[in-house]
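Figure 2 data, in text form.
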Amino acid sequence: MKYRSLLHSRATKTGLIVDHRKFLEGEVVPASRILKGFMTTTLPNVMTDIQEYCFQKRLDTEIEIGVPNSFVTANLVVAYRSQSFRVICGRSVVRSLWNPFAAEFGKNYDVMTFIESDMKKFHDELRSLLTTKYECRILELDTQEETEHRPLTNTAANKTLHTKH
């Protein structure tokens, strides 16, 4: 049985600023002082908490960038995967839209998170982490349906990111 949840969380601050090029290759490398503000990716605290949780639970966790951010969009979709789970996070700037530097601050993001796991404990602990630490809305899913592991560009998470609430 697969345990699934879809959550909409409000980030409260920047979790980590990483080297953009390394991140696109699936590596999380904190940006050097020289790079900060140039060719970096800001991960809001919601995403860094998810990332830390996934890597603590499974050393075989891999990062896949589904939709990279760029100079023209701050949206980003990232998947954390192992043999027993898949967690897809999509971030979108929703606050301070008038500010051209809004993307540099984690507090300006909301994060949509899709959790799918064979392990009930993993699913429940991650869901609890997000709902207790952040302002969070849980969106219902049909847990009977089997989902395929398809490329991120074809997932519902990408479409969900662009919807207005």
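Caption note: The beta strands are 3-10, 14-19, 40-44, 62-67, 76-81, 85-93, 109-117, 135-139.
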